[in-house]
Amino acid sequence: MNDTARELAAKLIRNFNEVELNAEVRAPLYETLCTRLASGTAAQKLGASIDIVAPGKCSCPYHFHYAQEEMFVILDGEGTLRVAGELLPIRGGDVIFIPPGPQYPHQIVNSSEAPLKYLSISTRDDPEVVEYPDSGKYQAIVRGARGGLFTAIQRKENSLDYWDAEP
User: Fold this and answer.
1) Is 88 within 8 Å of 80 (Cβ atoms)?
2) Is residue 27 classed exposed, middle or buried when 0-12, 13-18 and 19+ CB atoms within 10 A define those classes?
């Protein structure tokens, strides 16, 4: 490959079988090997990640997005989609579509005895607010125009008055 082709490949192509995976563990419920695939690419409005969830574990808390839409492609294994108060069986080959909004809080649970591997694809709408119904938390995320990031996590009861500390 020439230099131009190498640069294009670096900006446009990721092979999820060849990326370095990071262990994210929070006992006793959460354990996954994962990585964000779009980081460092030319992607501007799409995010993608790969997760391999350990048997009996979850990759993240039950949540929903106010702005971001998500799609999950189950690559290998079986598990459970916890969504809108229901438990739905999922397996390799399933494609799951989760629109934004409080109608579809969701969580993928590996309820099997083997690893569960899935690809997540999402819009990266900005700003974003994520709500966590089990814990009553909210997360606000704003990606700056210059690549900066603001994120805050709190509960409603910790909110400040609009005029707090203003002159």
Assistant:
1) yes
2) exposed
Tens-digit pLDDT profile for residues 72-93: 999 999 999 999 999 999 999 9
Domains of the chain: 3-124 (2.60.120.10)
Task: State the pTM of this model.
Answer: 0.91
State which amino acid sits at residue 45.
Answer: K
Q: How far apart are CA 122 and CA 115, in angstroms?
A: 22
Mean per-residue pLDDT, 63-67: 97
Residue 58, amino acid: C
